[in-house]
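I'll show one example:
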Amino acid sequence: MMPHPSPAHAYRAARAAMPPRVQEADVFRRVNGALRAALVTNGGRGGEAGLRAVRALADNRRLWLAVEGVLLDPTNALPPPLRASIISVGRSVLREMEKPEPDLDFLIEVNESMAAGLSMNN
């Protein structure tokens, strides 16, 4: 009898079959889920809630740094004005996250816009 694949394995296989833009939109949505959880706990200052907020912000920072890196790559096929515009948005996001109390609603809104844009025509 063949072993059944684990749910995690099945999920990874299904994700790998998705078009790249859909996968990218999914990353923005996942990061947003963590930001929303941090918002619900009001960015708790200590304990598990505080750790959740710190992790969500760190994940968002990594995401936007990765986006910027991809967009700065000279082989990127996006039109230069679009790349520059997204880089500008990303830098606004990174500046917001440097504040003592970042505006989570703003970060969520930007990520939702990115996910929506990536999901268009898919």
About this structure: The helical segments are 7-16, 20-40, 47-72, 80-98, 104-119.
